[in-house]
Amino acid sequence: MMTYDIINAGPKNRFMTAGRIVSNSGRLVQFQNLPQNHLKDLNLARDLIKEGRFEDVELLFGNTPNILSELIRTTFIPKPNHRFIVADFSAIEARVISWLAGEKWRLEVFASHGKIYEAAASLMFHVPIESVTKGSPLRQKGKISELACIAEGELVLTDKGLVPIENITTGHKLWDGEEWVSHEGVIYKGKRKVIEYEGLRATEDHLVWIEEKFVTLGEVVNRNYRLTKAHEYYSTNKETIVTKVYDILNAGRNNRFTVSGKLVHNCGYGGGVGALKAMGAIEMGVEEHELQGLIDNWRVANPHIVSLWWDVDKAAIDAVRERGRTSTHGIIFTCKSGMLFVTLPSGRNLVYVKPKLSANKFGREGLTYEGIGTTKKWERIETYGPKIVENIIQAIARDILAEAMLRLDNAGFNIVAHCHDEAICEVPIGQSSVEEICNIMSQPVSWAKGLPLKADGYECSFYQKD
Description:
Layout: E1 14-17, E2 20-23, H1 42-50, H2 54-61, H3 64-70, E3 82-89, H4 92-101, H5 104-111, H6 116-125, H7 137-147, E4 150-151, E5 155-158, E6 161-164, E7 174-175, E8 180-181, E9 186-193, E10 195-197, E11 200-202, E12 207-210, E13 213-216, H8 217-223, E14 242-248, E15 256-259, E16 262-265, H9 273-278, H10 291-301, H11 303-322, E17 325-328, E18 331-336, E19 339-343, E20 349-359, E21 365-372, E22 378-383, H12 385-410, E23 414-419, E24 422-428, H13 434-441, E25 455-460
Antiparallel strand pairs: 1-2, 3-24, 3-25, 4-14, 5-6, 7-8, 9-14, 10-11, 12-13, 15-16, 17-18, 18-19, 19-20, 20-21, 21-22, 23-24
């Protein structure tokens, strides 16, 4: 898929396209991958560094280079008599896919109490949501099913070498510790806080393999367990950050694959028997013969997101086969002039270059297009429903942020930067509030009726993560 942008367009870094103001790409500052900050007293650390008191920094905070890394984002400060108000969308990708798929129970959760982990556990294990309390093991099971995932950039061992998880396709076979296995593709799961342990970066809820069983990475860290190595892997120091995260669906009969040299569990989102076992269904008293019934019940309760994947897959294939136009879930697919145009609800297009149909690894008709692949060279890339949906969801989330930024701009706010799903405003001291900016961002979008939006924020005297 080819996309384009314009670099450094004027003092406000924006230009017009399709009648809308959009932000250009910057080349002076890259906000996307700034190291996360976790220091308890950022003000003290900044003051000591500014005064050149590096011995005191070492004494109070530890490794000075790491502290300097954490302070990078704090070098961005507002002009005098102003402060930053930073606001971002809450679970924007999860909300968008629920809305696009029409998964009503999830929309009701987001529109009301917002307890998605509790609601997921309630549906999966057939208990009242009131019984799934914060400390309940069931809530943890629901959280695992919703969140467990691997950080962007982590290297997966494939039959074609080490490949970043976000670039894995169904054309790659994965090493499960015993054999090369097929899988059902990568799922993008939004932005999450990840932790690093023995070179592996993942959410604390992700299941990892130790001593012939799966446990969460958080438990491994707390108990200082050793992760099971599947091959030699040499890691570099990485920050604990909030980053894009991914997982892989149904990797072989053992439901596992190798990432950063360690064996981890594949995504339980597809509802496989192995996933439920790993989540502790047997230990909870569920009989083995009941597992498939639980899976079926989950699919009955959550059919729309699964249907979205394959409806999109069919619509894209039909458009290319017929060299015409198809649609599903409000998304329009048009194949013309050697391109596949995917028209989003906002009216903006995603474009796949030179689409073709051919038999995929599963022996059925699949879609390929030309672009920059895992080799970092121009090549033919295989894609399918879930991957196209990932592109669509990310693009819609971006359009929603663009709409919110237009509203903020029209309200007189000075947006000095934006990153992923957050907007950073420079606001005079004594004027406006976090609540006002979050309320503006949470307003309904005209082309996304029924999508419940929520923004959270904070204010600061220098840029930081709350």
